[in-house]
Structures are given as structure tokens and as C-alpha cells.
Specification:
By secondary structure, the protein is mainly alpha-helical. The chain has one domain: Orthogonal Bundle (434 Repressor (Amino-terminal Domain)). It is 73% helix and 0% strand.
Length: 79
């Protein structure tokens, strides 16, 4: 699994856990909804600033997001 895809999958999981739509997450993180969609689909890579904005809106630390991405990449590399 590519890094962008892993980030997108984790972003979607955290967003759904918070019961947020892409639009609401975008509003709360000062991003465009289409950009959030592109991130979730693995078509864009977030900047460190974007990771911090998203983490604040999702009520998690940036470290939690990155750690979850790292875990999913590691799990998929073992297959």
C-alpha cells in the first residue's frame, strides 16, 4: 500500500469515528472539501501543516495519525 493510500484510509477512519462528513471536517480544519476527498482517496499528500489542522479537527494528536499510518504500512508490508 502506498503512503498516500494509507494516509487516506486512516483519515477516513478517524473522520468516521468522529461522525464528521468530509464537508464538516474541511470546515473545521480550514481546508477545501474537495482536498479532503483527494486526501482520503490517496490522490494527494498532506503537508505537515495540513496534518496538524486535521488532527485538531479530529481531536487527536498528529502523532496518533502518523502512528496509525505507519502501522498500516508496516502491516501491509508483511503480507
Amino acid at each position: 500500500m502506498k503512503l498516500e493510500q494509507a494516509f487516506g484510509r486512516i483519515l477516513r477512519e478517524f473522520r468516521k469515528k468522529e461522525k464528521l462528513s468530509q464537508e464538516k471536517l474541511a470546515q473545521e480544519s480550514n481546508l477545501d472539501r474537495t482536498y479532503v476527498s483527494l486526501l482520503e482517496r490517496g490522490l494527494r499528500q498532506p503537508s505537515i501543516t495540513t496534518v496538524f489542522q486535521l488532527s485538531k479537527a479530529l481531536h487527536v494528536s498528529p502523532t496518533e495519525i502518523i502512528s496509525a499510518v505507519e502501522l498500516i504500512i508496516h502491516e501491509n508490508s508483511e503480507d
